[in-house]
């Protein structure tokens, strides 16, 4: 999220799993102008609003129209890895905008290289942990200051011995969970 400043920018978050929800909180704490999230699960959509999303739309809705951004979003965070979300990320980023790629696709991705990347002048940042210490320091400051509260994202806590119940919560088709935490 913070590879470049997001203050006063429009942000689109594709996918509201735990990392997408964390991204919403960081964008809000960092002064994003508006934050639109795309999520198919009603449960996670409600979590996205609690974490600071201005608006949440389903994957079949138009995020640009819902976010009232004229020419697309300044910043798009692709957190799901789904082909449809990746395609939407490139369609909904404005010319000269930035995409942060975090979601891991299950297969090769198709992309309209010329129209969605080159002619739009889009910057794409893949997140792999190269700047991990700088990122940790920024995250630490946001958490210690109270600007970001991650408690709403942690929706389930299980003793380690109940790992099967924890994994069942994570993989349930309804996706009625945020972050599942195991404790010893």
Report strand order across the widest sheet.
3-2-1-4-5-6
Uncertain parts: none
Number of helices: 7
Sheet with the most strands?
6 strands, parallel
Shape: globular
Please give the radius of gyration in angstroms. Answer: 16 Å
Please identify, by name, the CATH architecture of the largest domain.
3-Layer(aba) Sandwich
| Class by SSE composition | alpha/beta
CATH topology of the largest domain: Rossmann fold
**Average residue pLDDT:** 92
* CATH class (first level) name of the largest domain: Alpha Beta
What's the count of strands?
8
Task: Give the fraction of residues assigned to helices.
Answer: 25-40%
CATH homologous superfamily identity of the largest domain: NAD(P)-binding Rossmann-like Domain
Would you list the SSEs in sequence order as H and E? EHEHEHEHEHEHEHE
How many domains, as an integer?
2
How far apart, in Å, are the first and last alpha carbons?
A: 31 Å
Strand content: 15-25%
